[in-house]
Specification:
The complex is a heterotrimer of chains A (158), B (265) and C (779). Chain B contains 10 helices and 13 strands. Chain B has helices at residues 11-17, 52-56, 59-64, 66-73, 78-81, 86-92, 99-106, 203-209, 216-229, 240-261; strands at 2-5, 24-27, 37-40, 43-47, 109-114, 117-122, 127-129, 132-133, 140-147, 153-160, 171-179, 185-193, 200-201. A 5-stranded antiparallel sheet of chain B has the order 3-4-9-5-6, with helices on one face. Chain C has 3 domains: 25-55 and 480-623, Aldehyde oxidase/xanthine dehydrogenase, molybdopterin binding domain (Aldehyde Oxidoreductase, domain 4), CATH 3.30.365; 58-159 and 233-280 and 287-319, Aldehyde Oxidoreductase, domain 3 (Alpha-Beta Complex), CATH 3.90.1170.50; 326-478 and 626-776, Aldehyde oxidase/xanthine dehydrogenase, molybdopterin binding domain (Aldehyde Oxidoreductase, domain 4, 2-Layer Sandwich). In chain C, 27% of the residues lie in helices and 23% in strands. Chain C has a 7-stranded mixed sheet, with helices on both faces. Chain C has a 6-stranded mixed sheet with strand order 7-15-14-13-8-27. A 4-stranded mixed sheet of chain C has the order 16-24-25-26, sandwiched between helices. The longest helix of chain C is centred in the last third of the chain and has 28 residues, at 546-573. The chains are: A alpha+beta (158), B alpha+beta (265), C alpha+beta (779).
Chain lengths: 158, 265, 779
C-alpha cells in the first residue's frame, strides 16, 4: 500500500514523514521518528502511557492515526523541558519520588501538564480524576498526586 | 470497505484487534460545520465531529442538558474525551454506550446524510443491536439535534461502574423531566442502558413519575417499572440479576438529581 | 520461578550470636547504628532520563536490519496439535523465518523444570491454555508478520479442559498431564490426577488443640486469579550471529537467569549469550521467567537477522504468568481469653499446566504471623488449563493471609475481643517457632501491631455505611547470589556495577550505602546495572532482595576498597598499615609521631593511585543469607454503598518493618505500591474465563486495576527493627505490603456491610449478593 506523506509540527519542530494509513501516531513517533518517550502499554486507549498533546488536546497517540498529524501540532514528553531546564512537574516528580519504574511517567507528565494548564489550582479530587486515564502500577498514585500539588503551587506562585 | 472516522476511539481499537480491516478511512474532523454547536428553530444542533471534551466545555449545553453532557463526558478518560464523539458512541452501538441513554430520554434526533439525501431519525431508532445500526449503506450522521428546552426542565445520567473511571457501564439510567409551576412532574422520559441489546426507552417508568412530586411511592413504582423492562445478560462486567437490581437504584437516583436540577424540592 | 534451592529459607535462625566484638568486615552481621547518608532522601540517578523520555525500556531499542517477530497462539484451552503447516507463511514475501517446536529441539537433558519452561515457550504437541504459543514468524514489518500468522495452518484436536481450581481436583476432571501422579504422598497414588504435589508444614497436635478450644471458626475462602499488571509489556531484541554467539536486549528482573535459561533452551553455551537488561517498566515477579525470548532468539538464528519481539497487552494477559487462583479451607480453635489453641488450613492453588511450588509457599506463610502451639497446613498444587503461574510480589502469601486473617478477625469478633488486641496476644515474637519451621530472631510483628493500636487512624470516626478492617502480613525475603564491583576513578568518584536490576530506585539506595561506608558524599557515587558479560552471576531482583543483597555485597566491596585505600595511604606516608584508620572518607594516621600527618581524602589517594599501584577497586561475591523476614500491619476504612455493593476505600495505612530504611522515600513507595496492588486485587481484579476455557478479559478495560481516582492517599509508617544479619540492619521491603490488603479490606467490607466476605475480589455483584442473601454467608 502506498505511504502517506505527512507534514506536521512536533515539539515545535517542522517534521515530515511517510507512514502507512493504518499506522498510529504512536507507531510513527516510536518507530519512524525515534521519539520513544510515549510508550505502548495497551494499544487500546486504556492505560494512557502513550499520552501526547495534539493541537492542545490531551490524547492517546495509540488512538490517533499518523496521517491525522498533517498540519497539526504534536507535543510529546521530549519537548517538555526547555533545553536543560526541566519543567517544574518533571523536577518535582523526581524530588517527590513520584516515579518508581518510570514507564508511566511520560504519559502522566503530559496529562498533568494538560490538567494544570486548564486548572491551575486543582483539588486533590480534580487531580485524581484528571489523571484517571493514566495507569500506574508501582506507586499507588500517592506521591504522583503530591508532586502535582507541589507543581501547581509552584507554578501559581512563579 | 470504507469507514467513517470521527474520534477513532472505537474504530482504532477494532482495527487493532482485527475485527475490522477497512480499505478506506474517511476522517470527517476537518469538515468545519461538523464541529458546530448552534441554536436552530427546533432546538440545538451539535456537529457529529465535535469531541466530547469540547462538548463539556459548552456552558449553554451544560446548563440546558446536563444529563446529555454527563453521558457524553463520562466516556473513557480525559485522553479519550479529547477525541470521542456522541455520534461515534451512538454508531458503535454498544448496549452500554454512555452517550445514548440521555439522548434517548431527551428525545434527540440524528441528522443523517446519505446518497438519497437528508433525513432525521429519533436516536432511539438508530441502534439495531449490539454493534449494528439502522443506517443504510452510504449514510453518515452529520449532527445530533436536541429539542427546544421548556422551562423547569432538566435531565440526569448515571452509570454504574466498579471503579471510579475508565469502565464500560455495567448498567445506566437517564431521566429527563419537565415540571409545572408547582413542581409537579408533567413530562418525563426514562432510558436504561446495558440492560438489553439496545438502549431501552421505558414509558412505563416515565408514567410512574408523571403527576407526582417524586415522593417515595413514585420512586418505588419507578424502580419497579425500570426493573421490569430490563432484559440483561450475564457477562464479564456483571450478572443479569445485579443489572436488574441496580437499574432500579440508578433510575431513582437519576430521577432525584434531575428533579432537583429542574427546581423541584 | 522462585526456587528453594538456595539456602535462605532453610537458614534456620535469625538470631545473631551476641556480638561482643566488632563483626569482621565480611560477616553479614549488624554493625552500624548511626548513619550519615543512609536514611536520607537524595535524588535518584536515573530520574532525569525517566522524566524526559530518554530512558530506554525493552521496546525502545532497535538494531539495524531487525525483523518484527510475532507469535501464533492457541485459541483453545486444551488441544492436541496434530499438524502445523507453515509453507504458505514461509513463502510470503517479506517473511524471513517461521518456527515451530521443531526448531527448538529438546536440550533439557531430562531436567523436568527446564522442559516445562521449553514447553511453555512453545507448545510441543499439546496446547495447554488459551494463548499457548504454537508457532512464530519474523518478517520485515508488522503488517507482513500479521499476514504470515494468518497463513499458518494448525490442525487441532480439541480436548476437554478444566480451568477452575475446585473442578480440577474432582475425580472425573479432565487431566492436564496424564503422567502426573501427586508428589509428596506416600504411597504414591495409583491413578494420575491434576494435583501435582502435596506439601505439609506445622507442629504440635491440632486435633488436641481444637478439642481444647471454646470456639471453632471453620470456613472456605476463594481468590480469583490476578496478574501483576505491569504497564510495560514483555519486549526484547534478539540477535544471533552465524558463529553461534548472541545478544539479547530484554526487560527483565534477572538478566543472568534469563541468559541461563535461554542458552539452555537454544543449546548455546551460557558464555556465548550476552544479555543486557533494559530499564524495566514494572515486573513484580512477572519478569522473573522467560516467555517469548527463546522464540525471538530462535527466529534470529534461523533468519540470520536481529528480531524484535514485543507482546501485545492481550498476549501479556493470556500468555505470561498470572497468580494462582485459590480455594482455602481454614479451621481455627480459640479460647475465650483470646488464645489460639490450634490452626489448620488446606490450601489449593492453581499452577497452570506445570508443576510449581505455589501452594507450598502459601502453606508456609499462612500462619507465619502467629505463635502457635498446634498448627498444620497442607498445600496442594493444582494443574489447570490456564497460563503458567509466576510470582507476584510475595507470591502465594496474600491469598493465604486473606483466608487466615479473615478467620482470625471472625474469631476475635465471636469472643468479643478487639482484633488488634487478639493478634497481639497471639503474635509471633523472637524465639517463637514459626509455623513453617524456623525459629524467629528479632521481628517486627509485635511492634507493627502496637503501632497500629496507637495510630490516629484507629481513632478516626467512621461515617454511615463505613467500616474499618485491619490485617497482618509476612514475607520471608530472600538473599541469594550477588556480585558487585566498585571502582574508584582518579578523580575520587566511585562507580558501582551491580547485577540486580533496578525496579524501583535501588540504584539510589545502593549508592547511599557505599557513600555511607566510604564516608563520601552521595553525589560522588554512581551506580550502574551491568550486563551479563561484565559481572559474575547475580540472582534476580525478586524476593525483595535487590537492595538487601546488593547493598550487602557493595558494603563488603567498599570495605575491600577501604583496605586498599588504607594500604595506599600507608605507602604514601611511609608508615605501617596498622597505623592507618579510615574515617569520614579520609585515611587518618594514628600512632606515635604521626600526628602531624594531615588526613588524606579518598580523592587525594585516588589521584595518586597511578603511582601507588594502579586502579583502586573493591569486589564482592556473596551468597547473601539472612535476608530478614518482614512483617506489616495494615488498617483500612471503606464505604460500601448498600444499594449497589460498590466499595470505596476512604483511608489506608501501612505500618511495616524495614529493618533500616536506606532511602525512606523509596521504602514508602514500596509500601504504597504494594498496598495499591492489594486493593485492586481485593476489590476488582480477576481473570474471567468462559465455559469454553478462554480468557474473556485480557485488556486493561476489563482487567480493572486501580486508577488514580479509586484510591486515597496511602499513609505509611516505617518501623526499624534492625535485621541482625545485615551490616546496616536492612530487611527486604518490596513485597510484604501486598500481603495484608486482601484481608484488611475484606475485614473492612465485612464490617461495613455486615456480612462476612469469603470470595476475592469483592466486586459489587458479590457484595450486593452477600448483603441481600438470607444467610449472609457471602459468595
Amino acid at each position: 500500500m502506498a505511504g502517506i506523506h505527512v507534514k506536521t509540527t512536533i515539539n515545535g519542530d517542522a517534521v515530515e514523514f511517510i507512514c502507512q494509513p493504518e499506522e498510529t501516531l504512536l507507531d510513527v513517533l516510536r518507530n519512524r521518528l525515534g521519539l520513544t518517550g510515549a510508550k505502548e502499554g495497551c494499544g487500546t486507549g486504556d492505560c494512557g502511557a502513550c499520552s501526547v498533546m495534539v493541537d492542545d488536546r490531551l490524547t492517546c497517540s495509540c488512538l490517533v492515526l499518523g496521517a491525522e498529524a498533517e498540519g497539526r501540532s504534536v507535543e510529546t514528553v521530549e519537548g517538555m523541558a526547555r533545553g536543560s531546564e526541566l519543567h517544574p512537574l518533571q523536577r518535582l516528580f523526581i524530588e517527590h519520588a513520584a516515579l518508581q519504574c518510570g514507564v508511566c511517567t511520560p504519559g502522566v507528565l503530559i496529562a498533568a501538564r494538560a490538567l494544570l494548564e486548564k486548572n491551575p489550582n486543582p483539588s486533590e479530587e480534580e487531580i485524581r480524576f484528571g489523571l484517571a486515564g493514566n495507569l500506574c502500577r508501582c506507586t499507588g498514585y500517592d506521591k504522583i498526586v503530591r508532586a502535582v500539588q507541589a507543581a501547581a503551587q509552584e507554578m501559581r506562585g512563579a | 470497505m470504507g469507514l467513517v472516522m470521527a474520534g477513532g476511539t472505537d474504530l482504532l481499537v477494532k482495527m487493532k484487534s482485527g475485527l475490522v480491516e477497512p480499505d478506506l478511512i474517511v476522517d470527517i474532523k476537518r469538515i468545519k460545520p461538523l464541529h458546530e454547536v448552534k441554536k436552530t428553530a427546533s432546538g440545538i444542533s451539535i456537529g457529529a465531529a465535535l469531541c466530547n471534551a469540547a462538548l463539556g466545555e459548552n456552558a449553554m449545553l451544560r446548563k440546558a442538558w446536563p444529563g446529555v453532557v454527563e453521558g457524553a463526558t463520562l466516556i473513557g478518560s480525559k485522553q479519550v474525551q479529547g477525541r470521542c464523539t456522541m455520534a461515534g458512541n451512538l454508531c458503535n452501538a454498544s448496549p452500554a454506550g454512555d452517550a445514548v441513554p440521555a439522548l434517548v430520554a431527551a428525545g434527540a434526533k440524528a441528522v443523517i446524510q446519505g446518497p438519497k439525501g437528508k433525513r432525521k431519525l429519533a436516536i432511539r431508532d438508530v441502534p439495531a443491536g449490539p454493534g449494528r445500526t439502522t443506517l443504510k449503506k452510504g449514510e453518515i450522521i452529520t449532527a445530533i439535534e436536541l429539542p427546544k428546552r421548556e422551562p423547569r426542565s432538566a435531565d440526569a445520567y448515571l452509570r454504574f461502574i466498579p471503579r471510579t473511571e475508565m469502565d464500560i457501564a455495567v448498567v445506566s439510567a437517564a431521566v429527563n423531566l419537565t415540571l409545572d409551576a408547582k413542581g409537579v412532574i408533567k413530562k418525563a422520559a426514562v432510558a436504561l442502558g446495558a440492560v438489553a441489546p439496545t438502549v431501552l426507552d421505558v414509558p412505563a417508568a416515565a408514567r410512574a413519575l408523571i403527576g407526582t412530586k417524586l415522593d417515595d411511592a413514585a420512586l418505588d413504582r419507578l424502580a419497579e417499572a425500570a426493573r421490569a423492562a430490563c432484559r440483561p445478560i450475564d457477562d464479564k462486567r456483571g450478572t443479569a440479576a445485579f443489572r436488574i437490581q441496580v437499574a432500579g437504584v440508578l433510575a431513582q437516583r437519576a430521577a432525584r438529581t434531575a428533579y432537583a436540577r429542574a427546581g423541584g424540592k | 520461578m522462585v526456587t528453594l534451592k538456595d539456602n535462605s529459607l532453610a537458614n534456620p535462625t535469625e538470631a545473631a550470636p551476641p556480638t561482643t566484638s566488632e563483626p569482621g568486615p565480611h560477616e553479614p552481621l549488624l554493625s552500624k547504628h548511626h548513619f550519615k547518608s543512609v536514611g536520607t532522601r537524595p535524588l535518584r540517578p536515573d530520574g532525569i532520563d525517566k522524566v524526559t523520555g530518554r530512558a530506554k525500556y525493552g521496546a525502545d531499542h532497535n538494531l539495524p536490519g531487525q525483523l518484527v517477530g510475532l507469535v501464533l497462539r492457541s485459541p483453545h484451552a486444551h488441544a492436541r496439535i496434530k499438524a502445523i503447516d507453515t509453507t504458505r507463511a514461509a513463502r510470503l514475501a517479506g517473511v524471513k523465518a517461521v518456527i515451530t517446536a521443531a526448531d527448538l529441539p529438546d536440550h533439557t537433558g531430562g531436567d523436568e523444570g527446564l522442559f516445562d519452561i521449553l514447553d511453555n515457550c512453545i507448545a510441543r504437541d499439546v496446547a495447554r491454555y488459551d494463548g499457548h504459543a504454537v508457532a512464530a514468524v519474523a518478517a520485515v514489518d508488522a503488517a507482513t508478520a500479521r499476514a504470515a500468522l494468518k497463513l499458518i495452518k494448525v490442525s487441532y484436536e480439541v480436548l476437554p479442559h478444566v480451568t477452575d481450581v475446585d473442578e480440577a481436583v474432582k475425580a472425573n476432571a479432565p487431566l492436564i498431564n496424564p503422567k502426573n501422579f501427586t508428589r509428596g504422598v506416600e504411597p504414591a497414588p495409583a491413578r494420575p490426577s491434576n494435583i501435582a504435589k502435596r506439601s505439609t508444614f506445622g507442629h504440635g497436635n491440632v486435633e488436641a488443640g481444637f478439642k481444647a478450644a471454646d470456639v471453632i471458626i471453620a470456613r472456605t475462602y476463594r481468590t480469583e486469579q490476578t496478574h501483576q499488571g505491569y504497564i510495560e509489556p514483555h519486549a526484547c531484541v534478539a540477535s544471533i550471529s552465524p558463529d553461534g554467539t548472541g545478544e539479547l536486549w530484554v526487560c527483565t528482573q534477572g538478566h543472568f537467569a534469563y541468559r541461563q535459561w535461554c542458552a539452555a533452551i537454544l543449546g548455546m553455551d551460557v558464555a556465548k549469550l550476552r544479555v543486557t537488561s533494559s530499564e524495566i517498566g514494572g515486573g513484580f515477579g512477572g519478569k522473573t521467567h522467560i516467555w517469548m525470548e527463546p522464540l525471538a532468539l530462535a527466529l534470529s538464528r534461523k533468519a540470520n537477522r536481529p528480531v524484535k519481539m514485543v507482546m501485545s497487552r492481550d498476549e501479556v494477559f493470556r500468555a505470561s504468568g498470572p497468580t494462582s487462583a485459590t480455594s482455602i479451607d481454614v479451621k481455627l480453635g480459640v479460647k475465650k481469653d483470646g488464645t489460639i489453641t490450634a490452626g489448620s488450613a488446606t490450601l489449593r492453588y492453581t499452577n497452570g499446566p506445570y508443576f510449581g511450588m505455589w501452594a507450598e509457599l502459601g502453606a508456609m506463610t499462612a500462619f507465619a504471623c502467629y505463635d502457635l502451639e498446634n498448627v498444620e497446613t497442607i498445600g496442594l498444587e493444582v494443574l489447570v488449563n490456564r497460563p503458567k503461574v509466576a510470582a507476584y510480589r510475595a507470591p502465594s502469601a496474600p491469598e493465604a493471609a486473606f483466608a487466615i486473617e479473615s478467620a482470625v478477625d471472625e474469631a476475635a469478633k465471636t469472643i468479643g475481643m478487639d482484633p488488634v488486641a487478639f493478634r497481639i496476644r497471639n503474635a509471633a515474637r523472637e524465639g517463637s517457632r514459626s509455623s513453617y519451621g524456623p525459629v524467629y530472631g528479632p521481628i517486627g510483628i509485635g511492634p507493627t501491631l502496637k503501632a497500629a493500636q496507637n495510630h490516629p487512624h484507629m481513632k478516626a470516626p467512621l461515617g454511615p455505611n463505613q467500616g474499618r478492617g485491619m490485617a497482618c502480613g509476612f514475607w520471608f525475603n530472600f538473599g541469594g547470589q550477588t556480585c558487585s564491583d566498585l571502582n574508584i576513578g582518579v578523580d575520587g568518584t566511585v562507580t558501582l556495577s551491580v547485577g540486580t536490576v533496578d525496579v524501583g530506585g535501588s540504584r539510589a539506595s545502593l549508592a547511599l550505602c557505599v557513600a555511607e561506608e566510604l564516608g563520601i558524599p552521595y553525589d560522588h557515587v554512581r551506580c550502574v546495572v551491568a550486563d551479563t558479560g561484565t559481572l559474575g552471576h547475580n540472582d534476580m531482583t525478586d524476593g525483595s532482595r535487590g537492595t538487601f543483597s546488593s547493598s550487602m555485597a557493595l558494603i563488603f566491596a567498599a570495605r575491600n576498597a577501604i583496605n586498599v585505600l588504607k594500604a595506599r595511604a600507608a605507602q604514601m606516608w611511609e608508615i605501617p598499615l596498622e597505623n592507618v584508620v579510615w574515617k569520614d572518607g579520609h585515611a587518618h594516621a594514628t600512632g606515635d609521631g604521626h600526628g602531624n600527618l594531615a588526613p588524606l581524602s579518598l580523592k587525594e589517594i585516588a589521584a595518586s593511585a597511578p603511582n601507588t599501584g594502579g586502579p583502586i577497586a573493591g569486589h564482592a561475591e556473596i551468597t547473601a543469607d539472612g535476608a530478614g523476614v518482614s512483617f506489616a500491619t495494615h488498617i483500612c476504612d471503606v464505604e460500601v454503598d448498600p444499594e449497589t455493593g460498590r466499595t470505596r476505600v476512604t483511608r489506608y495505612t501501612v505500618i511495616q518493618d524495614a529493618g533500616k530504611a536506606v532511602h525512606p522515600a523509596y521504602v514508602e513507595g514500596q509500601y504504597q505500591g504494594g498496598a495499591a496492588q492489594g486493593i485492586g486485587w481485593a476489590l476488582n481484579e480477576e481473570y474471567v474465563y468462559g465455559r469454553d476455557g478462554r480468557l474473556q478479559n485480557p485488556t486493561f478495560l476489563d482487567y480493572r486495576i486501580p486508577v488514580c481516582s479509586d484510591l486515597p492517599m496511602i499513609d505509611t509508617q516505617i518501623l526499624e527493627i534492625p535485621n541482625p544479619n545485615h551490616p546496616y540492619g536492612v530487611r527486604g521491603v518490596g513485597e510484604t505490603s501486598i500481603v495484608p490488603p486482601l484481608a484488611a479490606i475484606a475485614n473492612a467490607v465485612s464490617n461495613a456491610a455486615g456480612v462476612r466476605m469469603t470470595h476475592i475480589p469483592m466486586s459489587p455483584p458479590r457484595v450486593l449478593a452477600a448483603m441481600t442473601s438470607a444467610d449472609k454467608l457471602g459468595v
